[in-house]
Amino acid sequence: MDSTPPSSSSSPFDLVSSALGRYIPRGQAAAPGPAGSPSDPAGAPPEQDVPAAGPQEQILGAVNLDRELRVTHRNLEAPVFAGLDAPIGSPFVDLLPQGDVPTVTRRLRQVLETGEAHVARVQRLRRADGSELVVSMSILPAAAPQEGLTVSLIAMARRLHLYAAETAIGTSLDIGETAQSLAESLLAWGDVAAIDLDFAVWTGEGVTERAQDRIRLRRAALVPDRAWPEGYVTLGDDLPVEASRLLAQAIRRADTPQSIVIPDRAAIERVLGSPRLVRALVPSDRSAGVACVPLVLEGDPPVVLGVAEVWRRADRPFADSELLDLEELVARTSHHVDLARQHQREHTQVLALQRRLLPRSGGGTIQTASVYQPTTPDSAGVGGDWVNSFPLPDGRTALVVGDVVGHGLGAAATMGQLSMEARALLSAGLAPDEVLEHLDETVTLLDDAETGLAAGYSALGSTCCIAVYDPVSHRVALSSAGHLPPILVSPDGRAGPLALRPHPGLGAEFALREPFGVHTFVAPPGSLLALYTDGLVEDPAVPIDEGIGRLSDAVASVHPWDPLQQAARRVVSEVMPARQRDDVTLLLARMIGYRKEDTATWRLPARDDAAVRARELVSALLRQWRTRDGTRDSVLLLVSELVTNAVRHAGGPITVRLIRDGPGLLCEVGDTGNGRPRLGRAGLLDDGGRGLHVVHRLTTRWGVRWTETGKVVWAEVVR
Q1: What's the pLDDT tens digit per position in 99-108?
Q2: Which residue, 482, 517, 484, 485, is CA-closest to 503?
């Protein structure tokens, strides 16, 4: 196909080629082209009107393509395009870095199909020697009757590149991405660019003006991405100690951070003084020079965060103006590196708090697994969602999941406080609804500006769901504060959300507050309970009920033999919205419970002979369990004291429960009283309180939990 337009055509290629005449010096040959191009004397402006363009002004180029995206005409005669190999008939994508081929090809074909121009996108082009040129590329449809495309190229001026680079570098709070963006921007001045950061900066630790000869450098970024020779320091590696010390000393001449240029390989070898260091730092066997520019945190004294290194062939020495450009770019972006360091420190602190809150094993009566996934790796700190599960002292297991408003240290601090408070209150025997009442008051206090605790952060509207599993009765007591309903999968595979009464959440206005209810249900062995946060099921594209339904189906597909942690990850990957907008948390709990032969429960009337009857029943069971004589005597005395106290201080029927759990025996006595047994200092002649002292000495631990009808005093004895 002949795509050469007639002389009267005003195609985009003609217009761009005509404009090139004003930027190519007099007497320089231009590529063959149509009329009106610089190679056409008839179409060129009068010679006296052509300005004498300096090298920095020669920044325009044009390439014409057919519908197969092959080059039909080109005008790349400006010196800045030297090395761009675009022969007639070759695919245009041969000029692109390999990773950019799919994206640019899609844009080219889109302009062909729609006829709408794609204007001014920053793009890199490959030179024949492997280096790259940064250009502003526009894709224009060819004028009729010609078919194809015209691609105009404007080599980006240094100042424009500085601005674009600074803008791109400041878009991420991830220290690795920040270093990578800086290295990619520096590549415009050389063949290889590397960023080596102080190890303390890389890990987010505090940076001080400590002795710089002890600086430890780690390679944080390296471009281009390719196979490097053996021994060369690549991404994530620490520089050799001697290299770190030499670089630190070189850039701190006269105790002031300064840039240095080592012009050739011979000078580099003299400075490094070791073949091993040369292999570690010099990116190729070709003769090379390097410019080392310190990343400096301004202060008194200034602190060096790391070193930016730009390598190029020795036959292309660094001009003073180029070194000034490098220093300006690094200086402009050093504060972005420090911001990323600060974020890394905050991120590490919050993750440490998150790990402290990860679910613990619930023992042999329940299996738990959890998944926590923040919104993005470089979000403003992990926070928001929290999840916890832990065994209670009386043999039950608590499952807690919450969603604190916001992210960052403020949300993380509130999350940690609420989580620890919930655990302490549950361990003290409070019911789930009572725990939520305390958390509700805590959120209100934290938001009270007069207390000085808010510090500009509000946790109002946070949600929480607490479930307590009794492995003997296989019953779960659950309370929710504005949280989405958990999903229960029965052993026969039926699944669905629990029917909970809606609640406004924690810290609601006083007039809107409602009492927290307790939803009690049976979870037979083999049941699966899923607690989660809204980020897992909320998607603007679908109703929330549909998201919960999808989660129910995914949880129902978990096989009883599936490893629970793997199953939790699979459920999250299947259900999570395509575009994650919030933190995602999932807690799966598989109910197991105690075996029937390991528990026994008796109900006795509150009469004077209740203690005798309890001893008879417990003694027979302990003989059946083949308990040691010493342990049996201790348990009988313990049961006698607890039942006697229940008869004396409480009314109604008395419940005695014995549980065999591994190396221990758990004894429980329940009554209808609401008084709290307290261990006080009893005198030698005092009768009151002696029973609790006996209980205290016979057991490894004991406590009280509250029920809807009264209380239960529990105690644990080693078998």
Answers
A1: 788 889 999 9
A2: 482
